[in-house]
Design a protein that fits this description.
It is built from 11 helices and 8 strands. The protein is α/β, with parallel strands linked by helices. It has one domain: Aldolase class I (TIM Barrel, Alpha-Beta Barrel), CATH 3.20.20. Strands 1-2-3-4-5-6-7-8 form an 8-stranded parallel barrel, surrounded by 5 helices. α4 runs parallel beside α5 and α7 runs parallel beside α8 (153-159). It is globular. The two termini are 15 Å apart. The mean pLDDT is 95. It binds cytidine-5'-monophosphate.
Length: 221
């Protein structure tokens, strides 16, 4: 997947998802299907898109359950699938061992919605320390990459091998409103800071011409 742009299909139906995917076409390197669409439409959502899929299900359960879920996903052959690094080493190793053939297993470090005060409330260190610890664990456990916030890219880069995938959401094109993002990072800034892939949703999917919006982001890179 040489095109680093992953477009988030955060819509509740296959119709809406496949219409968007058709408009965007190969301006996207991959499409992200998350819990909203997967819970609403099931595996058919993945089958309906003729492009690489990042299946953003963020699994977090006991190792056996996660391993069996990975095996259940095998027929869908997603390009990427993810689990929470907070599930711990044994869970990560189980996911790596049973992930679908040809699928990259990513570990979510710390959700971008969690700030230091919220982390302290659940007994976790500040984001930078937690991300460093969890990214190191993901590397050790054999994961192919991580998902992290733009603010954590440098922290992850410092502990990741060169071929590690670093996928980051929270991206806003230079000329776009920030939506609810306190400080969105531009596509070019994220890639310069060490991301290998960026996830962009609404700036593309809510544009009047989603294909043109996606191509404009590629040009920004
Ligand atoms: O905000 P946008 O529509 O571009 O979000 C695309 C995807 O990135 C969403 O599916 C969401 O899960 C993820 N995201 C995130 N952290 C943010 C913003 C978005 O994880 N700060």
């Amino acid at each position: 997947m040489s095109n680093p742009l992953i477009v988030a299909l955060d819509v509740p139906s296959i119709d809406e998802a496949s219409t968007l995917a058709k408009h965007i076409g190969d301006a996207a390197g991959a499409f992200k299907i998350g819990m909203e669409l997967f819970y609403a439409a099931g595996p058919d959502a993945v089958r309906s898109i003729d492009a690489p899929i990042f299946l953003d299900l963020k699994l977090h359960d006991i190792p056996t359950t996660v391993a069996r879920s990975m095996r259940a996903l095998a027929p869908l052959r997603p390009a990427m699938v993810n689990v929470h690094a907070l599930g711990g080493r044994a869970m990560l190793e189980a996911a790596v061992a049973d992930k679908p053939e040809g699928t990259a297993l990513l570990a979510v470090t710390i959700l971008t919605s969690l700030h230091d005060a919220a982390l302290a409330e659940i007994g976790l260190p500040p984001a930078q320390d937690a991300v460093s610890l969890l990214a190191t664990l993901a590397v050790d456990a054999g994961c192919d990459g991580v998902v992290c916030a733009p603010a954590d890219l440098e922290t992850v880069r410092a502990v990741a091998p060169d071929d590690f995938l670093i996928v980051t959401p929270g991206i806003r094109p230079a000329d776009h409103s920030q939506d609810e993002h306190a400080r969105g990072t531009t596509p070019a800034e994220a890639m310069k800071a060490g991301a290998t892939h960026i996830v962009v949703g609404r700036p593309i999917t809510r544009a009047t011409d989603p294909g043109a919006a996606a191509r404009a982001i590629l040009e920004e890179l």
